[in-house]
Each structure stands twice: as C-alpha cells, then as structure tokens.
Specification:
The chain is α/β, with parallel strands linked by helices. The chain has a domain of about 260 residues: L-arginine/glycine Amidinotransferase, Chain A (5-stranded Propeller). About 30% of the residues lie in helices and about 25% in strands. β1, α1 and β2 form a beta-alpha-beta unit. The longest helix has 18 residues. It starts with 18 loop residues before the first strand and ends with a strand. Bound molecules: arginine. This is Arginine deiminase. Pathway: Amino-acid degradation; L-arginine degradation via ADI pathway; carbamoyl phosphate from L-arginine: step 1/2.
C-alpha cells in the first residue's frame, strides 16, 4: 500500500516505465565510520561530509516524491522487519562471524544484539560496532586485546546507500543479489531479511538467490520486457551471469539475457556506470566504449542455455528488443571531458519515465547533450554522495514501474 492507500504491487519490466515505488537508503552513521585507513576496503574514494551527504540524499528523495513516487526507506523497513522475532534471530545470526572475531567476542556481540530493541539492532546492523562500543565480555579475550578500540567487531555498511546493487526486481519477483566484495556481502543478508519478513513483501516471489554466484544489481539492465542485459566484470562473474539467466528463463521472466563483458577497473564497477537507459529505445553511454562493447546472447534451449556471439552490444540489444536500432544519445564529448564525467557518474541516470531522468548536476556536458537530444534532466547535487562512486541509478532500487 502507498500513502494514498492504493496498492502498488511490486512489478518492474523495464528501465524506463513510469516509476511508482522505489527503495532508497538515507545514509546514516555508517558513513561516519569511514577513515583514510579503511575507505579503500570499504569501497569509498574519499571521506564524505556526512551532513551534506544526507542533505543531498534528502533532496534526491524529495525530487522523487514531488513527482508522486512512493519513496520507501530501507532503514525504516529494516526496523519494521525486526519486529518479527524470526527476523531478529536471523539478523543476529547473519551479523556475527566467529571466524572474524572469535568465540568470546561473538558471544558478547550475539548477546548484546539479542537484548537491544529493533531500532538499536537495525542501527548496529547498518552502522556496525567497534570493539569499544561492545559491552565488556566476561573473561579476557585475545581478540579484544589485540584489536584497537576503534576496530570493527561488526563492520559498517556504507555502501548500503547503493540500494541498486543488493536486490533487483524483475517482473513481480525479487532477486536478492549475491555481492562480490567482502565489504558488501552483509548487505544482501539485510535485503534478504526484509523481503522474507516484512509484511509488505509477504506475497512477493523470489528469483535467483543470495547464495548463488556473484551478481550485483548495478550490472542488471532491463532493456525491454523479456530482455535483460547483465554486465560481467569486477563484480558479476560469468558463472553469476549464467545462473542468473537460468533463473530468469526458469521463471519465464526473460527470453534473452545479454552477457556484456566490461573492463575490470574502478571506473566501471558495474554496467550501469557506463550505460543506462533514458528512453524505451535510447541509452546514454560512455563514448569510449560505444563501438567496442559486445554481448553474448543467452536463450533457453531444451532445458539448457544456448549461447551465441559475442556480437556488438548495440546490435544484439536491438535484435533482442525487437527494434531497428538502439539509439545512443551521442554525448559527443572530447575524451577527457567524457572520462571525467563518466567517473563522476554522468552515465548513471535514473529514468523516472521514458525521456525523463535524474542525473548529478556536476556532469554539465553530458546533461546538456541529453537535453539537446530531448531528454528532460532532473538535476540533483551529489558531491558528497558521489564519494562512494555511485549516481542516481546506483542509489535507487525500483520496486514498481508502470508498464510501457
Ligand atoms: N550500481 C552501481 N554502479 N553501484 C556503485 C557501487 C559503488 C560502491 N562503492 C561499490 O564499490 O560497490
């Protein structure tokens, strides 16, 4: 149910159908954990100014609400989910890793997490806990003595902000992603809990599984109903793409899955860092890869998967989508500007409807080319949000989009 009381059942068949319900995470105290010593490991490129990041995120959410979109916040869903004792038990179980902290600290952490209320539990799950914050364990622990007080007994999840990656809705099913980087693995335990126990999702079916080969939502693009592109690179593995395709075919959610190799480097973490859809037949794409991006086409065949290609991505995509041509909005940028704006998530747009996208304001050139091509660009500021290397698409997980 949305605020007006009308039902908006989860349903996403495209990248650009009018957005109705979206899952965001307002960044919180987990961002305050970032230091120059841990930011690499926690996948941030700079230390964000937290208040400003929150203000930027509030403005992002407001832009969506102003257009009638129901914004659901992950932190609130988690608190509501944890009212269910089964969810609480599962949450504690998934948060404590004896291999990391040993049995004594694990016991202390478990008993602490089991006694706090759901708000404090949600906060600990997201913002983590340091050894210093953990109530003193009985007896003496080597682990505690050999760690610094500010080391983490429970690691924080600063990348939870990028709700795109930890779950993906395809049709009326949700796939909880299997995240590749250790710093992000616990995120899927949280989305998994929410989808399993929050009453809002009690009727939602699952696709794929959190314990399968790595697939991250930023790599998954719903090019058209029945056509899914999936980037394969630093995060999503070939095995992940293949089993995701099998899962799509088994549930009749897709007839074609395009596996798209992307360079394994920081600038192109996911497919959506170099290419996003801005209209039913158009993408904005990093110019440097426009002519080199390829795709393997996967289709169901006799209970297995038929693989063809690789072929140029634009050709296979248009073919699978049943259109003559997939338009690339020509940002026509010189290589240096293009590289700068790609790094700052210029190609990472969130479509609110065909031809209407949210983009970071700082990517001045890309945005003006989009507008020249007839795309409405809703600008948001993201100087602090972008320190985690993610733009409007990364920061949003569409739950309901109207059909085209
Ligand atoms: N869909 C995306 N492109 N997400 C970007 C995620 C960035 C995040 N810091 C990571 O390295 O995982």
């Amino acid at each position: 149910m949305n605020e007006s009381g009308s039902t908006t059942e989860p349903h996403v068949r495209s990248e650009v159908g009018p957005l109705r319900t979206v899952l965001l995470h307002r960044p919180g105290n987990e961002l305050k954990r970032l230091t120059p010593r841990n930011s690499d490991q926690l996948l941030f490129d700079a230390i964000p100014w937290v208040d400003r990041a929150q203000a930027e995120h509030d403005a992002f959410a407001e832009v969506l609400r102003a257009r009638g979109i129901d914004v659901v916040l992950l932190h609130e869903l988690l608190i509501e989910t944890l009212r269910d004792p089964r969810a609480r038990a599962a949450a504690v179980l998934s948060a404590v890793d004896e291999r990391e902290i040993g049995t004594d600290i694990a016991d202390a952490l478990r008993s602490h997490l089991s006694t706090v209320d759901e708000r404090a539990l949600a906060e600990a799950l997201i913002a983590g806990m340091t050894f210093e914050e953990l109530p003193a364990a009985e007896g003496d622990s080597l682990v505690r003595r050999m760690h610094l007080p500010h080391d983490f007994a429970l690691t924080p999840l600063p990348n939870l902000l990028f709700t795109r990656d930890s779950s993906v809705w395809v049709g009326d099913r949700v796939a909880v992603a299997s995240l590749a980087m250790p710093a992000r693995r616990r995120e899927s335990a949280i989305t998994d809990l929410i989808y399993a126990y929050h009453p809002r999702f009690s009727r939602s079916g699952r696709a794929y599984g959190a314990h399968s080969a790595p697939v991250e939502g930023g790599d998954v693009l719903l090019l058209a109903p029945g056509v899914v592109a999936i980037g394969v690179g630093e995060r999503t593995t070939p095995a992940g793409a293949e089993s995701f395709a099998r899962s799509m075919f088994a549930d009749d959610l897709a007839h074609t899955v395009l596996a798209v190799p992307i360079t394994q480097q920081r600038a192109s973490i996911h497919l959506d860092t170099v290419c996003t859809m801005v209209a039913e037949d158009a993408v904005v794409m990093y110019p440097a890869i426009q002519h080199s991006l390829t795709a393997y086409s996967l289709r169901p065949k006799d209970g297995g998967v038929d693989v063809s290609g690789p072929e140029p991505f634009l050709t296979s995509a248009a073919h699978a989508m049943g259109i003559d041509r997939l338009r690339v909005i020509d940002t026509g940028l010189d290589p240096v500007t293009a590289e700068r704006e790609q790094w700052e998530d210029g190609n990472n747009t969130l479509a609110l409807a065909p031809g209407v996208v949210v983009a970071y304001e700082r990517n001045v050139e890309t945005n003006s080319r989009l507008e020249a091509a007839g795309v409405e660009v809703v600008r948001i500021s993201g100087s602090e949000l972008g320190t985690g290397r993610g733009g409007p698409r990364c920061m949003s997980c569409p739950i309901t989009r109207e059909s085209l």
